[in-house]
Amino acid sequence: MSNLNGWGLTARLISKHFGALGDRVSEAIANFDPETATEADRDRLAVTLRETAQKLASARSAFDKEHGDVVRLRELIANDEKAALTLAERLAAGKISEATVTLFCDELEANKARLPVEIQEEADAREYMDELQKIVDALSKQLADFDAAAKKALQELAAAKAQKDLQQLRMERQEQLSSLSSMQTHSTALNALTRRAQSVSNEAAGLRIVADIAQKPLDQAAEINAIRQSVAQADTSGETALQRLQRLSGAKPADAA
Predict the structure, then answer these.
(1) Cβ–Cβ under 8 Å, residues 10 and 3
(2) CA 63 to chain centre
(3) Which of 27-36, 65-74, 138-147 has the lowest mean pLDDT?
(4) Which of 71, 105, 208, 211 could serve as a FRET partner for 15 with CA atoms 20 to 30 Å apart?
(5) Three-class SS of residue 146?
(6) How far apart are CA 130 and CA 146, in angstroms?
(7) What is the dihedral of CA 243, 248, 251, 255, to 10 degrees?
(8) Runs of H (alpha helix) within 187-250
(9) Residue 63 contacts residue 126 (beta carbons within 8 Å)
């Protein structure tokens, strides 16, 4: 792209066609840095691109017209040059007036004189159109670079955030593991519970000893009572009257004496 501060004829054409926009375009392209631009900068550049693109569309139409004028004028001159031979023959034969031939020659000479002007206007229109196309291409690239930089920045931000979340999760997990390890080895509450359980167990063992001591006389009395009941329930259906008296009195049987 040519230097936008030294356009020469094209710069004058741009200034003539849309005034200060030429300077704004130059400034927008020169000052736009995709790496540091903000969204507002991008919006301004997009507006400039849209305005320039509209001018480019008009410039293309103008060039097409100028080009068409040149083509038609050249065809007209070529045809008139061919017709000149025929007119010369008719003039020599007296079949056409000299005034008519003079008018024809005046128009042909005027068209030939106008052709370089039309060609220059076509060239100017082409240069203007081509320069606008370069500007549109430059603005489009700036916007594309900004969008690419913005996309890259967003991706880097997302990756950084994901990495931060991962590291935060790792730290939390490490704290949890450290806390559990500390509870297993140094937990005051856990030690207190252990000591309390041992104390209760000791109390229970002491109460059991006391209960066993108190239970022993009860067990002995129950055993004696059971013996008495078994003796009282002994079978006496076959004893004699003498044996019954002896049993009741506690005396030994005669044959046992």
Answers:
(1) no
(2) 45
(3) 27-36
(4) 71
(5) helix
(6) 24
(7) 10
(8) 188-232, 241-249
(9) yes
- Specify the DSSP class assigned to residue 234: S
Q: Which residue in 118, 12, 19, 135 sits closest to 65, CA to CA?
A: 118
State the DSSP code for 252.
Answer: P
Query: What is the residue type of 152?
Result: K
Q: Is residue 239 within 8 Å of residue 247, measured between CB atoms?
A: yes
DSSP 95: S
Dump pLDDT digits (tens) for 97-141. 999 889 999 999 999 999 999 999 999 999 999 989 988 998 898
The amino acid at 238: G
SS3 of residue 101 by DSSP: helix
Q: Is residue 51 within 8 Å of residue 58, measured between CB atoms?
A: no
**Beta carbons within 10 angstroms of residue 52's beta carbon:** 25
Amino acid sitting at position 120: Q
Q: Note the pLDDT tens digit of each residue in 67-81.
A: 999 999 999 999 999
- pLDDT at position 1 is 37
Using 50, 70 and 90 to split pLDDT, how confident is the model at 13? low
Residue 142 contacts residue 42 (beta carbons within 8 Å):
no
d(CA 53, CA 21): 12
